[in-house]
TrEMBL record:
Keywords: Cytoplasm, DNA-binding, Phosphoprotein, Transcription, Transcription regulation. It is found in: Cytoplasm. One of its GO terms (cellular component) is cytoplasm. This is Response regulator receiver protein. One of its GO terms (biological process) is phosphorelay signal transduction system.
Amino acid sequence: MKIKLMLVEDQELIRESLNIVLGMEEDFDLIGAVVNGEEAIKICEKQLPNVILMDINMPIMDGIEATKVIKNKWPSVQIIILTTFEEVQYVKAALSYGAEGYLLKAIHPKDLAASIRLVHRGETLINQGLAKQLLASIPQENKEDSIYTKFGLSEREGQILQAIANGLSNKQISQKLFLTEGTVKNYVSKIYAKLDVQDRIGALNKFNEI
């Protein structure tokens, strides 16, 4: 089955460019390209998409509020926030409402298509550059000690959580810490259990709460 995809972007040039580029992907079914969150909700009420590419700053209803409404009404809809470095402060709110990840608007079209497929398969997206900006806005003094104590993480689990927050994949973590990828996966599962989260987005949100 094709991935039912909706674009929510108020800038006509970007919206039309995405519409053309993603429309060339054989496994995508573009069911709408709208200019604000209110219109996105109307589309969802008529024809539920699998994945939404959601802009942040839009008139009438922005992407943050639209994400909140859509995730409350239709939690199965997967939302990818399209952002710029200047908008990174809004990403945390979108993630807290349930967005599956976020990407820079400057991403290459083929990488964007691949990311949409990843999210549709149930994975989450954390752009490494944006993750670093998010973390840079949070006071770091005693942050690691606080999260270790609060959630009972071991030193190694704390190192892996920090790597997750920095946007590293399991493979990259294994290479950085000289562990097998299977060992990293086991650690990640334990971390999720201790933090009471289901995925990397949840872990990043929990990390940001400290």
